[in-house]
Write a structure and sequence with these properties.
It comes from Cucurbita moschata. Choline transporter. It holds the Pfam family Choline_transpo. Residues 1-32 are annotated as: Disordered. Keywords: Membrane, Transmembrane, Transmembrane helix. By secondary structure, the protein is mostly helical. The chain has one domain. It contains 19 helices and six strands. It has a two-stranded antiparallel sheet. The chain has a two-stranded antiparallel sheet with strand order 2-3. The chain has a two-stranded antiparallel ribbon with strand order 4-5. α9 packs antiparallel against α10 (277-313), α10 (277-313) packs across α12 and α16 (422-453) packs antiparallel against α17 (459-499). The two termini are 33 Å apart.
Length: 531
């Protein structure tokens, strides 16, 4: 295990001599000394999971290498395929003068309105996220209770509005019969009823969830630099994707124009035949892009976890440690790069397998063997999700390898009777509801403004939906960051609890009310059902 540093002066939970022992548990003597010293590792970290890092770099270099080859080896005659015809004398495809198709540019009021609306939404999304963060920090309870009714009111309003609007509009009435409109209306009302039932069932947890969100918002407000670094990582991924997409386009141009004999008519036609290696390169490049996306997501979680954990274990009450984000970035792209690559690979495999299982479920393949196999696969995927949930967070704190982080996190939560289910199922859904309500209110206001200043007719709703989708994507990113902060603080609290120390008193005052989990196997089953 890497050398782990303790905070300078943690506050003891108790005045008794047993304050240094883990709470609510009696771990073996060999493990107690190991876990008592867990804290943020400020020292030099060794490189971990190097084979996976080498494999990832091999995928990337192969994608770029073969892509460069495809670029220089492309056939320039592919764009003129339509000008080729079969020559009987030479038994080959020959070309005529290429026909150039002129390109005309056109503009419309719909396109202009769409562009301006999306630009305005992009500009306004930043202050909306910042204002929402400040409100969640200082007025969490008021915001949550004020928006809770809108979780039901807004869907009901939208449901009734589209039904009435479609009934009044002659074109929509003809294309969408009344029977189907009523069925959709009833279905949406049933979904709204399920949402209400979820709130009623979890109402006793709302107050604790509000406090947890408030603590996370306070921690995030102390590290606002994450709102610059995390989007920059996403932008960097898009820049990284650009040449690969270009290589995929050029790879399609690797081939030749050959005559093809039509059996029915007996005539020959000129067709494009790709080189045999092109499909394999497509598979390689697409897998590299998917793995890179998963690595970027896990890298963002790592940076968030490392930054927040430095804030948590620091002794500075009103300020954050200096260069905490820079340290997290250096560790993410340095010693822990292999760990992040391994976590991203596991997430990619889980999602691919889950997609295959869902596809098989939709096909409804009969047989007891298929049913047993599906249950085994779902159990395996739930176990991987369970172990992976806090593995990257723990690795960001300690610098441990992926497998060690997953094992140590599980043992840490198990010894302190904590679970991984509660925080995710309640706070995430509540934050998602807030994001939906805010984006829906913005969409309604945007629609009213567009109808007042433009004459787009029915197309106004298309522009409004585009603006709503853009804002909800931005807010989803904000919720993703805040959710990772909640999980990081949760792990830091578990470390404090295990060591019998209090680094952030306000955090302990909230998280001490979390329910006790005495059976982690049942938590695993519960998490698989909730997913």
């Amino acid at each position: 295990m890497a050398a782990i540093e303790e905070p300078t002066k943690p506050t003891s939970l108790y005045d008794s001599p047993s304050a240094s022992q883990p709470l609510l548990s009696n771990p073996p003597e060999s493990d107690s000394s190991q876990y008592l010293q867990i804290s943020y590792n400020l020292g030099d970290r060794p490189f971990k999971d190097i084979p996976i890092l080498v494999l990832f770099l091999l995928f990337v270099l192969s994608s770029f290498g073969f892509g460069i080859f495809a670029t220089f080896n492309r056939n320039p005659n592919y764009p003129n395929l339509s000008s080729y015809h079969y020559d009987i004398k030479s038994s080959n495809c020959v070309t005529d003068s290429p026909n150039w198709v002129p390109l005309y540019s056109s503009s419309s009021s719909v396109l202009k309105s769409l562009i301006w609306t999306l630009v305005a939404t992009s500009i306004l999304s930043l202050p909306i996220c910042f204002l929402l963060l400040l409100l969640l920090k200082h007025y969490t309870r008021q915001i949550v209770y004020a928006l809770l009714p809108f979780f039901v009111v807004v869907p009901i309003f939208i449901n009734v509005y589209w039904f009435v609007a479609c009934t009044i509009n002659p074109t929509c009435s003809n294309d969408f019969p009344m029977v189907y409109r009523i069925l959709v209306l009833i279905f949406i009302f049933l979904v709204i009823g399920v949402i209400v039932w979820i709130f009623i069932v979890n109402w006793h947890r709302i107050e604790l969830t509000i406090k947890i969100i408030g603590v996370a918002a306070d921690a995030l407000s102390m590290n606002l630099g994450l709102f610059v670094v995390i989007p920059s990582m996403t932008l960097g991924l898009l820049v990284y994707y650009a040449p690969i997409v270009l290589f995929l386009v050029f790879a399609r141009l690797n081939g030749k124009i050959v005559p093809d004999h039509h059996g029915s008519s007996g005539e020959y036609a000129c067709v494009w035949k790709e080189d045999k290696w092109v499909p394999a390169y497509y598979a390689l490049a697409i897998l590299t892009m998917l793995w890179s996306a998963a690595v970027m997501v896990e890298g963002q979680v790592y940076v968030i976890s490392g930054t927040i954990s430095q804030w948590y274990f620091s002794n500075e009450e009103d300020d954050t440690p200096r260069r905490s984000i820079r340290k997290s970035l250096r560790n993410a792209f340095g010693p822990s790069a292999g760990t992040i690559c391994l976590s991203g690979l596991l997430i990619l495999v889980v999602r691919v397998v889950r997609a295959v299982v869902d596809s098989a479920r939709q096909e409804d393949i009969p047989g007891m063997f298929n049913l047993i196999l599906r249950c085994c696969v779902n159990t395996f995927l739930a176990a991987v999700d369970y172990l992976n949930k806090f593995a990257i967070t723990f690795a960001a704190i300690t610098g441990e390898a992926y497998c060690s982080s997953a094992k140590m996190t599980y043992e840490l939560l198990k010894r302190n009777l904590l679970s991984t289910v509660f925080v995710e199922t309640i706070s995430t859904r509540l934050l998602a509801g807030i994001a939906f309500v805010v984006s829906a209110i913005y969409a309604i206001v945007a629609c009213a403004i567009l109808q007042a200043v433009s004459h787009l007719g029915v197309k106004t709703y298309l522009v409004t939906v585009a603006a709503w989708l853009l804002l909800i994507v931005v807010l989803a990113f904000f919720i993703h960051v805040l959710d990772n902060v909640i999980e990081t603080v949760y792990v830091c609290y578990a470390i404090d609890r295990d060591r019998g120390a209090v680094c952030k008193q306000d955090v302990h005052e909230v998280y001490v009310h979390l329910p006790i989990s005495r059976n982690h196997r049942s938590s695993l089953v519960t998490s698989s059902l909730l997913v």
